[in-house]
Design goal:
Blueprint (H helix, E strand, L loop, with lengths): L11 H15 L4 E5 L14 E5 L4 E5 L2 E5 L4 H9 L7 E4 L6 H8 L4 E5 L8 H4 L1 H8 L4 E4 L2 H6 L10 E4 L22 E6 L8 H11 L6 E6 L12 H6 L1 E4 L8 H6 L3 E4 L9 H8 L4 E3 L3 H7 L12 H13 L1 H15 L4 H15 L3
Length: 368
């Protein structure tokens, strides 16, 4: 199981790779998990039942509207070459064309290979730009998995020559880790708003702060809990009244295993992304904890939520976000209804269902 991204920094791809590995280990499979890891703290538990191979430190590398932490150290190629001397039945590569970890594994591995594609961007398709380079490499993959229809559309420019199989299988979550009792909101206590993510324009944090700034001139009591940032000092001058009116707590970078505890303390989770999301793991985790979600109407989120007519807000609309927050704090019935809708949505994304679907692909590829 291979991921190109730094395991010491939270990411949706790594969350998927780790949880899939855990599911497979629980089914009796032997899993070697490969990827860069710049902080040895995150290696200590080795994800119980899994052999973790750290490929060293990373650098932030700009890709589309984000900065991916990947390794460009040539040593990675030789580390992977050595690891692949083991007799693996399947090599499963996440983002198989991402240098150097995933791409090196794709080029070096001689056994059956699965490539999972997570990326999506509404306006800029790096795969389309690199079509002449990437297309010949596609047939090194025996089975392609896309985590959503959005990510499938992203790799479409060079799929016409692909001879392997293609499946759309969403991200999964371990629903057993999330307490699913509906949380009552107690009047006259702060209404806790949670934001989980990096401080990148596409994540929509500025939009959330603008909405809260407008609400700070009312009599509502809010608490903002931010996971992924150490502080909000750079926003002090832009949104001064938030810092005067509301309690704000920044948790810094948070290990994925702590997310359920954070969600259990929340009244609403805001994911006002502007785009560039193929799927929403944080969104699913919030739904699994029976927490209402305010999400923007982007393709990666709407494909999950629209199946139950879950409410979405227009993209990049601070007024709509403000109204949604105000509606939730004033309307207990709305909070309850959204929590129940979320329970229905998240059921199909349990790792028991998602993992077994991927496992069946492994068995087919091994001829069993």
């Amino acid at each position: 199981m291979v991921s190109p991204y730094d395991f010491s920094h939270p990411s949706g791809v790594n969350t998927h790779a780790v949880n899939l590995s855990r599911y497979l280990a629980s089914q009796g499979h032997c899993i070697d998990l490969l990827g860069p890891c710049s902080d040895s703290y995150y290696e200590h538990d080795a994800y119980e039942g899994i052999t973790f191979h750290s490929l060293g430190s990373t650098i932030p590398f700009p890709i589309s509207s984000t900065a991916a932490r990947i390794s460009l150290n040539p040593k990675v190629y030789f580390q992977i070459k050595s690891i692949l001397k083991n007799q693996f039945d399947i090599v499963h590569i996440h983002e198989p064309f991402m240098p150097l970890t995933s791409l090196s594994t794709l080029l070096l591995s001689k056994c059956p290979k699965i490539g999972t594609f997570h990326a999506y961007h509404e306006y800029k398709n790096n795969y389309a730009i690199l079509q002449s380079v990437v297309s010949p490499l596609m047939n090194l993959i025996d089975h392609a998995i896309c985590v959503s229809e959005a990510s499938k559309s992203y790799i479409q420019p060079w799929m016409h020559n692909f001879t392997g199989n293609v499946s759309v299988i969403g991200n999964g979550i371990d629903t057993s880790k999330f307490k699913n009792s509906i949380k009552p909101y107690i009047n006259n206590t702060p209404f806790t708003v949670v934001f989980i993510g990096r401080d990148e324009p596409r994540k929509g944090l500025t939009l959330l702060l603008k909405a809260l700034e407008n609400l700070s001139y009312s009599n509502y009591k809010f608490k903002l809990l931010v996971a992924g940032l150490n502080d909000l000092n750079s926003y002090n001058n832009l949104f001064p009244n938030i810092f005067k009116s509301f309690e704000i707590e920044c948790l810094g970078s948070v290990h994925n295993d702590l997310i359920p505890n954070i969600l259990q303390t929340s009244d609403v989770v805001c994911v006002p992304s502007l785009g560039g999301e193929s799927f929403g793991i944080v969104l699913l985790e919030a739904l699994a904890s029976n927490t209402p979600v305010i999400a923007s109407d982007i393709k990666g989120y709407s494909q999950i939520l629209s199946q139950q007519n879950y409410p979405l807000i227009p993209v990049n609309d601070a007024s709509a976000l403000e109204h949604a927050l105000e509606s939730l704090i004033l309307n207990p019935e709305l909070r309850h209804n959204m929590a129940e809708l979320g329970t229905d949505i998240v059921r199909k994304y349990n790792w028991t269902a998602i993992g077994s679907e991927i496992e069946s692909i492994y068995w087919n590829m091994c001829g069993r």
